[in-house]
Amino acid sequence: MPTLDPVLERLRGGLIVSAQAYPGEPMRDPRTMDQIARACVAGGAVGIRAQGLADLTLITQHVDVPVIGLWKDGHEGVFITPTLTHAIAVAATGAQIVALDGTRRPRPDGLDLARTITELKAARPGVLVMADCGSLDDARAAQDAGADILGTTLAGYTGERPRTTGPDVELIDLIAPIAQVPLIVEGRVHTPGQAALAIDHGAFAVVVGTAITHPTTITSWFVDAVAGR
Questions:
Q1: Helix/strand/coil (H, E, C) string of 171-189?
Q2: For residue 51, which of 26, 38, 74, 68 has the smallest C-alpha distance?
Q3: Interval 37-47: pLDDT, tens
Q4: Which of 32, 81, 102, 124 fits as disulfide partner to 91, beta carbons 3.0 to 4.6 Å?
Q5: Please, what's the largest Cα pairwise distance for the chain?
Q6: From the DSSP assignment, how many helices (H) and strands (E) are in the chain?
Q7: Of all helices (H) and strands (E), which one includes residue 116?
Q8: At 138, which helix (H) or strand (E)?
């Protein structure tokens, strides 16, 4: 792997926390997500992943770790920072890394991934791009398109791979040997052991979201566990 950007070096071997809340939840407030992000950094997170322009604008002002920003627009298909316009707006919040859909599916604005990355970097020099992939073929294509980071975020959500109960370790094993840029594992990392396993299998860093920052879901896990006892 060639010499890395200093922003990426700060993420090496560490935990990135995804501070996001779903629409309609009580915690869906930029101030709340900002506080959660700061609390996670205090706990040792080396980076924060967050979504939405309002959330990102606050978080980037208040944390001293790299921020991976995205903008979810919609709920199906290509909805993670789906267009060049979305990507430029995310970068304008101060996020050092822009996460976008890194699959081979058609994008709403008709641009391919390579052109999206090229034009984003022309508009916002210095910004890095994380491609949220769903398969090995996605990862290969995203790397060729100029992505600075490959992510497993969409594994199990695009129809190419089954949805595993934990992180897709098989996919990590497929991507790690061909990755010429950092591979960040994200998706269904629910325990410290699973996070460590991802690193052992070649992940550059690991993103954990639900298990740390989503009390509604975590509460439901415990409710289900004690039900009927």
A1: HHHHHHHHCCCCEEEECCC
A2: 68
A3: 999 999 999 99
A4: 124
A5: 59
A6: 10, 8
A7: helix 113-123
A8: helix 136-145
Task: Encode pLDDT of 9-57 as tens digits.
Answer: 999 999 999 999 988 999 999 999 999 999 999 999 999 999 999 999 9
E strand or H helix that includes residue 211: helix 210-213
CB atoms within 10 A of CB 15: 20
124, two tokens: 């916002």
Distance between CA 63 and CA 48 in Å, rounded? Answer: 9
In this structure, the number of other CB atoms found within 10 A of the CB of residue 137 comes to: 13
- Residue closest to 189 by CA, chosen among 163, 171, 207: 207
> What is the pLDDT at residue 13?
98
Question: Residue 36 has which token pair?
Answer: 């959660």
Task: Kindly report the number of other CB atoms within 10 A of residue 146's CB atom.
Answer: 17
Per-residue pLDDT for 2 more than 80? no
**Nearest CA-CA partner of 78 in 13, 132, 150:** 132
Can you give the length of the chain in residues?
229
**Tokens of residue 187, six digits:** 């998706």
CA–CA dist 48, 25 (Å, integer): 20
Compute the distance between CA of residue 201 and CA of residue 149 in angstroms, rounded to an integer: 17
Instruction: Encode 47-56: b = buried (16+ Cβ within 10 Å), e = exposed.
Output: bbbbbbbebb
Yes or no: say if 27 and 215 are a contact pair by the CB < 8 Å rule: yes
